[in-house]
Write a structure and sequence with these properties.
- The chain is α+β, with helices and mostly antiparallel strands and about 425 residues long.
- The protein is built from 9 helices and 7 strands; from the N terminus they run ββααββααβααβαβαα.
- The protein has a domain of about 160 residues: Outer membrane efflux proteins (OEP), CATH 1.20.1600.10.
- A 4-stranded antiparallel β-sheet has the order 3-4-6-7. It has a 3-stranded mixed β-sheet with strand order 1-2-5.
- The longest helix is centred in the N-terminal third of the chain and has 68 residues.
- The two termini are about 20 Å apart.
Length: about 425
């Protein structure tokens, strides 16, 4: 599927949604581009080995002005033109190299896919962080406005003797705390924007206008054992280790059978002269040709056992590497699942707390308008409502991020849905 990235610039403001951000990162993120080039390099290695097994054409042109002391027998001075074509019929080393390069390409392809999934997770995490921090800045601004209003009210009360010095100090502390929290929220917002820019591969500073993401709570809790099974089957990094293990097995068995003969058919054409030829007919008439079968067999009895030992060691390392990767993935899935379940519980609690605080605010506002409670009591209820809203916002984004991570560690987009 070909994605067309469309984003609009108004001044220095970057307007994008999540999918556009991911596609921008694919094109510009240097870390991912390195992994993509590594996969391209592996594919070129496979094509190189494949072409060398089909036919090996070689062309050479040489010139030398060296004089031989025994010119009666041969002369190295002059020009030589050579062309040869070789077709390998039986060569276990070349064949296993071809198969090994295929497994290497498959492994690098899986690692590129793993890198893409990791990049998507990073971009979505950064994207959510910007949305969250921006929302918290808005709430902190409201908190400062509320604290300023409270401070003005207490100051007026203090002037007419209806408030104490302690009330004034408490109001001042609340205002300074709100300003301090607001400053921290601004800092986190600016930092989260820079981190997202880095993930997108953008160096210059930009302002964002990001499309919001709706947080949808899952109806069913994913089963941990099913998630582990899916991760072990779908996670690209595990697939890469399995391909590396296949390559290790091929190298081991080919090492054992390295004593088998190699057979090839070769045709050669050569021409040698001290003076550069004036016409092609001169070269054609004076050229020599040769063709025939070549075969060789040989084994070093001293190095053979050590080579087999090396291949066996490499194979054992590949097996342990696969096992280590599988164990790490099981741990990652369980950790992400536990975080997801904790985030789900926290979201429900935060939502319940916010609804209760909202209801309390409405009741206190009615009571305040009827003169049943003081202004200070009403301000405290309003502050509790704002704190509950901050907790609810945090819980929403933490929940979305937790299940985004679960989706990444399982290597499947169908686990938690969108």
């Amino acid at each position: 599927m070909i994605w067309i990235i469309v984003f609009f610039m108004t001044g220095d403001t970057l307007k994008i949604n999540l999918e556009q951000a991911k596609q921008m990162a694919l094109k510009s993120n240097p870390g991912y581009r390195i992994d993509a080039l590594s996969h391209t390099y592996s594919k070129l290695g496979l094509y190189k080995n494949l072409s060398s097994n089909i036919l090996n054409p070689e062309v050479s042109i040489n010139y030398s002005d060296a004089e031989s002391s025994d010119a009666m027998l041969y002369s190295t001075k002059g020009y030589s033109f050579n062309l040869s074509l070789e077709q390998r019929i039986l060569n276990l080393g070349q064949f296993t190299s071809l198969i090994g390069s295929k497994f290497e390409k498959n492994a690098s392809g899986a690692l590129r896919e793993e890198s893409e999934n990791r990049l998507f997770y990073e971009v979505e995490s950064c994207y959510l962080s910007v949305l969250k921090s921006h929302k918290l800045v808005e709430l902190k601004v409201k908190a400062i406005e509320r604290a300023n209003e409270n401070m003005r009210f207490v100051s007026k009360k203090l002037e007419v003797g209806e408030a104490s010095k302690l009330d004034s100090l408490n109001a001042e502390v609340s205002l300074n705390r709100a300003k301090l929290d607001g400053s921290g929220a601004e800092k986190n917002y600016e930092l989260s924007k820079r981190i997202l820019l880095n993930a997108l591969g953008i160096f210059e500073e930009r302002e964002f206008l990001l499309e919001p993401i709706n947080v949808r709570v899952l109806n069913l809790t994913p089963i941990l054992d099913s998630l582990v099974a899916i991760a072990l089957n779908e996670r690209p990094s595990v697939k890469a280790e399995r391909e590396a293990l296949k390559g290790g097995k091929i190298s081991f068995y080919s090492g054992i059978l390295s004593f088998l003969p190699s057979v090839s058919f070769k045709w050669g054409w050569g021409y040698r002269t001290e003076d550069f030829p004036e016409s092609f007919s001169e070269v054609r008439e004076g050229a020599s040709k040769s063709s025939g079968w070549n075969g060789s067999i040989g084994i070093n009895l001293f190095t053979y056992p050590f080579e087999i030992w090396q291949f066996k060691t490499t194979l054992d390392k590949a097996k342990l590497s696969l096992l280590s990767k599988e164990l790490n993935i099981v741990k990652e899935v369980k950790d992400a699942w536990l975080l997801g379940e904790e985030a789900r519980r926290n979201l429900k609690l935060a939502e319940s707390m916010w609804l209760a605080a909202e209801e309390a605010y409405k009741l206190s506002k009615t009571q305040y308008e009827l003169g049943l409670i003081s202004t200070l009591d009403f301000f405290r209820v309003a502050e509790d409502r704002l704190d509950a809203e901050v907790s609810y916002v945090n819980a929403q984004y933490d929940y979305k991020l937790a299940y985004t991570r679960l989706q990444y560690v399982t290597g499947s987009v169908s686990i938690v849905g969108k």
